[in-house]
Design a protein that fits this description.
heterotrimer; A mainly alpha (172); B mainly alpha (406); C mainly alpha (501); B: 406 residues; mainly alpha; 2 domains; 14 helices; 70% helix; globular; C: 501 residues; two-stranded antiparallel sheet
Chain lengths: 172, 406, 501
């Protein structure tokens, strides 16, 4: 029973990994920006799948709602408005090797950091408790938990919105 | 375990009678369940096409389909066969993979909603604890499908249609989500099953009529049908985002739209009219499906009436209506409902037994009065505004010299 | 059913300066809607009123040494001092902005709301005791600045400034977030005191988590390094400072820097001081890196500033150099036992720099024409004759930036170099002293231009009433700290010491 449960989960994990990484590769290697946006949506969908596997359905739904429903559409829309950008001809500039070097170094470092602990002892999950959406809601507004970041984040969104309006509005 | 109830005991029966390993039996059971849940709306859509055509015909003083089968009942099948036989055209310069994928995404985005809809007390695809949020998340995929279809078609009318889509659908998602929060708040849960169960004492359409109105209007706008059918306004955009599509791909958009309308009707029934609840549902669960379909039909027919009776509104009016009327109203409605619920709970008027009709009366009265007061205030504000506007118009008219032909 | 702590448990009184300012932003935003377009000075007055209330309240709760909101917010003298800097900067910037915005035609009521948002961000950053709060505060500090930098949108330079700042700022935020995630992965918590508690164990066991921690700390440093503009993350600074409206540049150069360094100091002092290479080491593992970055910053900032002809660009490079000096203090924090003194030195340096730099920018604005020109060094010619008082003050600000005794800059540098020496960073101190000498070249060049060269006419047409108030305030601040350093030191001492440790 446990073996089978595990294998189903492993199968799903593998599928979502392929979605996420494949989508990410599609974003990177695609010259067509709209297709890039579609690949991004695929990749983010895979991430939503991971959230489901991690017993965080709320985050999964929010992931789909925000990243696919809002950001994916926004990207596609913005790219469509700038149709000349949908096919980029210039791929590299003179500093490409520099950024490639920096990216590869960073990637190797992070890879090292991710892989290294696997060969050491595997830390146990910090808690077995599965948080429900209700727990999340309470934590966000409870004074001894995350009310400050929550409220400041709402302030941040207000500031960003006002900023966008200030920049975008026509002079009257 | 007896094998009397096919849906609930399918997997154990398969396992015990045929010796299939229980995991595989479970998998087959889930797989079949998915197929049934996904096919149901597709089958319903066929019936809906007939209903819609007949309904529209009666409103327009026509007969509607009446040649194929009794009362033209077989007409949809003829339509499907015709569409299947049509040439599948891909325009030059189209982005082929996206062009082909878009209709599928469009249909899937609607079908996925059905996974969380409770058909009867015991038959529900998945009782997600975040069902309401899931609905919003999945519905947003539909917008993406429309944008991609328009972009991939390489056609300016399609693209123009898509620009309108983004503006319209994203705008109307705001009141939709805010209205959806009201039943969630009253039920204290985002699970659609819990929301239905919370209406055992009283339907939310009574305690939250404004939310029901807002949800219905925004959902209608989300489907992109008249009077909100700007994304495919025939007279302006030829056909909108699906202009280049033909054959089965066009049919998929078409079916997606029909199912979307019906899905919204079902959601209205689930969120505001107690879903499957009705007499004797506890004894015979399958009755729940009948009740659900009856309630959904009410909203579906209302939606058809709206579609056929009202003219299309202009794009600026559409946006103004949303941002200056629906959105503020939905925000205020949410706040008022939250406040009243808080007061009701603090004062002790909250129902002791949520399933009892009598216990629910005080809370319902308070909420209903709150809604009624909000309605009166909003309507008087709207009236004053338009009166002022009319006055201003008549005054300017007086000042202007009358021109010939006016 | 749901266990919610009572209002009293939240300890809201001590958070009042920041929370009040955040709420007041909304008030300004709404009231501004009812103020007619030609009387936006009322918005400025309202903003100033709110800032003063927050300022006074901040003085009252300065040394409360309490945590609030479940330990997310620390109200100690460190945050009190950062609040002090942020509010001072905001008040002076407000005075700077009133006439400038009007005469350059970019007056919008939202400017003041954005200014308040950003100030609140600095204050939350100084008081944050949790990586999540640090991150959100960093964003709320930055996003209004992006907008304000691009506010003169008819000017392509201003647009470029806003866009550049936005893209690089977003990039920096991503670095910070990545680092914070790795630190969370290593320690299992985002609370700074709890990170501190688990660091020792991680160092002792030498587990894989240490790699995460080092990498995370490095990425956080990169993210904050972008914000405070240290080499090699300084590229954006000259372009952004030059293109942004000058009051915004002034505010950016002090407030964003104060916020960034506040977070950096908090993180290094509270969370990671024990992140050493081996058990029992007295020097944190990150000290050398930060010292090298500080040295590079001081050298590059000062030497490149020499060749600038635009005063705003020159001050941009000067601000890079000053970030290097403050970073020296951060490096000194890495030696166990010196943390307290080094933190104090860095804070006092920041206060001195705030007054001095705002003053310098105020004088630059007095010379700036309505179209944004008039900020070349040559435009300072003959200022001593046309506006003697302005010239005296500018000369004083320049001397303070150099670090000449009796000015605020001297006190700051004196304390910083002392702390660095005590921390054993001798080479770094020598570099600091030498680059200070180099910096005298370009600071004094402005004085030479003002006093020894002849100019034509009255260049300082922008020196209006409100601008003068701001200049006087900055001058007074610089002078007071320079002449009576014990005031600033005591201000900090009485309120700080027990708080941080």
């Amino acid at each position: 029973m446990t073996f089978n449960e595990l294998s189903w989960e492993a199968l799903a994990f593998g599928a979502f990994t392929i979605l996420t990484l494949g989508g990410a590769l599609g974003v990177v290697f695609n010259r067509n920006l709209v297709r890039g946006a579609v690949w991004l949506v695929v990749s983010l969908f895979g991430v939503a799948g991971f959230f489901v596997l991690l017993s965080a359905p709320f985050l999964a739904a929010v992931q789909v709602l925000v990243y696919i429903g809002a950001i994916g559409i926004l990207f596609t829309f913005a790219v469509m408005l700038t149709r000349s950008m949908t096919n980029l001809s210039e791929r590299f500039n003179k500093q490409a090797w520099l950024s490639a070097l920096a990216a590869v170094t960073l990637f190797l470092l992070i890879l090292l950091a991710v892989i290294a602990p696997i060969f050491g002892e595997i830390a146990a999950p910090s808690s077995e408790v599965v948080a429900t959406t209700e727990d999340l809601g309470v934590a966000l507004v409870s004074g001894d938990k995350f009310v400050l970041p929550f409220e400041v984040a709402s302030l941040l969104l207000t500031a960003a919105m006002i900023g966008a309006i200030v920049i975008a509005r026509e002079e009257d | 375990m007896g094998c009397d109830n096919i849906i609930n005991t399918f997997a154990p029966c398969l396992s015990s009678s045929l010796g299939v390993p229980i995991e595989i039996a479970n998998f087959i059971g889930i797989f079949l369940g998915v197929i049934i849940v996904a096919s149901f709306p597709l089958l319903v859509a066929i019936a809906l096409i007939w209903t819609e055509r007949k309904f529209a015909a009666r409103i327009q003083d026509r007969l509607g389909p009446n040649r194929v089968g009794v009362f033209g009942l077989l007409q949809p099948f003829a339509d499907v066969i015709k569409l299947l036989g049509k040439e599948d055209i891909t325009p030059a310069g189209a982005d082929r993979p996206i062009y082909n994928a878009a209709p599928v995404v469009s249909v899937v985005s609607v079908l996925l909603i059905w996974a969380v809809i409770p058909f009867t007390p015991i038959h529900v695809g998945v009782d997600l604890s975040i069902g309401a949020l899931y609905f919003l998340a999945v519905a947003s995929l539909g917008t993406l499908a429309i944008i991609l279809a328009a972009w991939a078609s390489n056609n300016k009318y399609a693209l123009l249609g898509a620009f309108r889509v983004v503006a319209q659908l994203i705008s109307y998602e705001v009141p939709l989500a805010l209205a959806l929060l009201v039943p969630v708040m009253i039920a204290g849960s985002m699970s659609l099953v819990s929301i239905v169960e919370a209406q055992a004492g009283m339907w939310f359409v009574v305690s939250a009529p404004i939310a029901a109105f807002l949800f219905f209007i925004s959902a209608q706008a989300e489907t992109g049908r008249a009077p909100f059918d700007l994304l495919e306004a025939e007279s302006e955009l030829v056909a909108g985002y699906n202009i280049e599509y033909s054959g089965m791909k066009f049919a998929m958009f078409f079916a997606g739209e029909f199912m979307h309308v019906f899905t919204n009707a079902v959601l209205m029934a689930v969120l505001f009219m107690g879903g499957y609840l009705g007499p004797f549902v506890d004894q015979i669960p399958m009755l729940g499906l009948v009740y659900l379909l009856i309630k959904a039909s009410f909203w579906y027919l209302l939606s058809l009436l709206m579609r056929n009776a009202l003219p299309r509104i202009r794009i600026d009016q559409l946006m103004l209506f949303n941002w200056l009327f629906l959105v503020p109203l939905s925000v205020v409605n949410l706040l008022v409902t939250a406040l009243l619920l808080m007061i009701v709970r603090e004062v002790g008027l909250a129902p002791d037994d949520p399933r009892s009709f009598v216990d629910n009366i005080p809370q319902t009265i308070v909420l209903f009065l709150g809604n009624a007061a909000l309605f009166v205030v909003v309507m008087s504000m709207v009236r004053n505004r338009f009166r002022a506007q009319r006055l201003a118009e008549t005054q300017t008219d007086d000042l202007l010299p009358a021109t010939a032909g006016d | 059913m749901i266990d919610v702590p009572s209002i009293a448990d939240l300890n809201l009184t001590v958070t009042f300066p920041a929370v009040f300012l955040a709420l007041f932003t909304m008030v300004v935003l709404i009231v501004d809607l009812f103020i007619p377009k030609d009387r936006k000075i009322r918005t400025a007055h309202l903003t100033l009123g709110g800032l003063v209330v927050a300022f006074v309240w901040n003085v009252l709760v300065f040394d409360s040494n309490q945590t609030a909101l479940g330990g997310m917010y620390i109200a100690d003298s460190f945050s009190g001092f950062i609040n002090f800097i942020a509010l001072t900067a905001a008040i002076i910037t407000c005075f700077l902005s009133v006439d400038y915005l009007k005469r350059t035609g970019i007056e919008q009521g939202e400017f003041y709301s954005l200014l308040l948002f950003s100030t609140a961000g600095v204050m939350f950053m100084g008081a944050a005791s949790d990586l999540i709060v640090v991150f959100i505060a960093l964003e709320i500090l930055s996003i209004p600045l992006y907008v304000m930098a691009a506010m003169r949108y008819r000017d392509a330079k201003s647009e470029e400034s806003g866009l550049k700042y936005f893209i690089l700022g977003a990039f920096a935020s991503a670095f910070f977030l990545y680092g914070a995630a790795l630190v969370y992965g290593a320690t299992g918590t985002t609370s700074l005191p709890e990170i501190f508690a688990s660091v020792e164990g991680i160092v002792a066991t030498d587990s894989g988590a240490r790699l995460y921690l080092v990498l995370g700390a490095a990425l956080i440093f990169v993210g904050l390094g972008f914000k405070v503009a240290v080499v090699p993350f300084h590229m954006w600074t000259p372009d952004v400072y030059e293109g942004a409206p000058t009051p915004v540049t002034a505010f950016m150069s002090v407030a964003a820097k104060a916020g960034g360094f506040a977070a950096l100091l908090r993180l290094m002092v509270i969370a990671l001081p024990e992140l050493t290479a081996n058990i029992g080491d007295t020097i944190a593992i990150w000290q050398t890196t930060i010292a090298i970055v500080a040295a590079a910053t001081m050298i590059l900032g000062n030497f490149v500033a020499i060749v600038q002809t635009n005063v705003k660009r020159m001050l941009a490079y000067s601000s890079i150099a000053h970030a290097g000096y403050i970073l020296m203090g951060v490096a000194a924090v890495g030696t166990i036992g010196v943390a307290e003194e080094a933190t104090r030195a860095a804070l006092i340096y920041m206060l001195a720099y705030t007054f001095t730099n705002l003053g310098a920018f105020a004088v630059v604005m007095a010379l700036e024409k309505d179209d944004g020109s008039g900020t070349q060094i040559a435009d300072f010619k003959g200022l001593s004759r046309s506006r003697p008082l302005l010239a005296v003050m500018m000369a004083f600000f320049m001397l303070s930036l150099t670090g000449v005794p009796t000015t605020a800059g001297f006190i700051g540098k004196f304390l910083l170099f002392g702390a660095a020496l005590e921390a054993g960073l001798v080479l770094l101190t020598i570099i600091g002293v030498l680059t200070s000498v180099v910096s005298a070249y370009y600071y004094v060049r402005i004085i030479v231009n003002m006093y020894l060269e002849d100019g034509e006419g009255d260049p300082a047409e922008g020196a209006t009433q409100y601008l003068n108030y701001a200049t006087y305030a900055a001058f007074a601040g610089t002078l007071i700290i320079g002449l009576f350093p014990f005031l600033a030191v005591n201000l900090l001492d009485t309120m700080m010491i027990a708080g941080l440790f």
